[in-house]
Amino acid sequence: MQRNVNFLRMGVLGAAATAVLAATLPVSAALWPATPAPDTDAVNLAVYDTMPRVGAAQLPTDPFCDRPDVVAISLTEDYAEEITLSAMNDDGTRFDFWASDLSGTWTVTYTRADGSACVVGSGTGWSDGAAPADFLQQAGVAL
Fold this sequence. Notes:
This protein has 143 residues and is of the alpha+beta class. The chain has helices spanning 14-24, 45-49, 68-79, 132-138, and strands at 65-66, 82-88, 94-99, 105-111, 117-124.
């Protein structure tokens, strides 16, 4: 995986890295018609829609964005995550909720109108039978 720093959730740094990474994700007012959970800031999709760099061209401080197949390979091979919920918007954008019963991890990706996919939230605590909508709200996205 090219940008492992953006997917680091387990290993040497464990939960501390998750907290630091989650704190660095840009959040504020949503442009997408979603309602955040109480006391949760909505994801500012403008940050992802205007990200000029994707893939190997990205800086370490950029949110992770790449071709959807690259993101999918990373999530399936590195975290054993599978898509459990997808939501397509009228403007051609899409949210996918990925989760792994094996590792207990979850990831929310946002596919922009230009086809690039970006990770907008991730964490741990997923278990089989959990409600994806609860985790989407944690990430600032409510369907």
